[in-house]
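#help-structures

NK: newbie question. if I give both the sequence and a SMILES, will the prediction place the ligand too? trying with zinc ion
OV: yes, paste both and it writes out the complex. here, I ran yours:
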Amino acid sequence: MMTFKPDFKPPTNQPQRDLWFVYQDQKLIVKVSGDTFSIPRSPDLRQVNLSPIREQYLGALDDRHCYAAELPPDVPIPNEWSASGLRELFGLLEDEFIWVAGRANQLVDWNQSHQFCGRCANPTEDKIDERAKICHQCGLINYPRLSPAIIVAVRKGNQILLAHNKRFRAGYYSVLAGFVEPGETLEGCVKREVFEEVNIKVKDIRYFGSQPWPFPNSLMVAFTAEYADGEIKVNKNEIVDAGWFSADNLPRIPPKITIARWLIDWFKTNHQTG
Ligand SMILES: [Zn+2]
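OV: that's the protein plus ligand as structure tokens.
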């Protein structure tokens, strides 16, 4: 198990054992050799003449220093390299690399969208004493943005509520999720989202865990809840189908790396029949 230690100040000497999480149009640039995908190091980038821009230090993964950077959109990807959406790399890169790559994705996205001050439109600069951007004209400071979202496993007896969102691949079902609104508690958001999406009232809301979801900047806060009242009526703006499923009769569900899956696995573990 690798350990990641975040930091914003890069080491003073340029290390050899480094890793570059380089994005081009929200796709991660990785080296491909046969079936093996790997995160490039400085010599790998030099070898194919790739010069990423706007680098940001991320921290160290064990003894390897990690950097996030961008590749301008017109730079061609070398042979035997690939540009892939992070979700396509689930299972192809080790989980620790996926999470550092997610951190990189969030910071690259934030860096791109905060080059200018949102209040007075002057260029911003990196703050020297913390991860933030400052406008020296008006003093506005922008920190990397996080968008909290709830995700919830609703139980009714020995069944779980799963829905097929219209953004999902065909046949896949998952637990419900949604963004927290300004002024809302997490518990209030759980109640509102479940009611808005499927017309069900819930109670006994309990914290389950959390997971950064860097697409581009969510933090998923997971809960379990119990059915309280109502009949399923789906909100067609978001949900195609929803239903109650028992542990031995589940549809296709999200991959093991997602907290949605951890919620469903928790339900399965607690409701195995026979
Ligand atoms: Zn400003």
